[in-house]
Write a structure and sequence with these properties.
It holds the Pfam family UTRA. InterPro entries: Bact_HTH_transcr_reg (IPR050679), Chorismate_lyase_/UTRA_dom_sf (IPR028978), UTRA (IPR011663). One of its GO terms (molecular function) is DNA binding. It comes from Actinorugispora endophytica. The protein is α+β, with helices and mostly antiparallel strands. The protein has one domain: 3-Layer(aba) Sandwich (Chorismate lyase). The protein is about 15% helix and about 40% strand. It has a three-stranded antiparallel beta sheet with strand order 1-2-3. It is elongated. The termini are far apart.
Length: about 80
């Protein structure tokens, strides 16, 4: 089942003022458990992402550690000056 409202929308509706996030993106080979869960071979390349989001008074409001199948993930960025 998919949620119809995103996490950040719910946080804002609850009065949380999101301020800043720290995110690290990397890559590594899949562990045996990750390979089974993601339908990949053990050691297959995975993208990793760790993120911590803070509100306007410095409280952590989200902390996540994720792995993604590299074969099914794309980054799209807009860079401005």
């Amino acid at each position: 089942m998919r949620a119809s409202i995103g996490l950040y929308t719910l946080l804002r509706a609850a009065g949380v003022n999101l301020k800043i996030a720290s995110q690290s993106i990397g890559a590594r080979g899949a562990t045996a458990a990750e390979a089974r869960a993601l339908g990949e071979a053990r050691g297959a390349p995975l993208l990793t992402m760790d993120r911590t989001v803070y509100d306007d008074i410095g409280r952590v409001v989200e902390a996540g550690s994720h792995v993604y199948r590299a074969s099914r993930y794309t980054f799209e960025l807009t860079l401005t000056s």
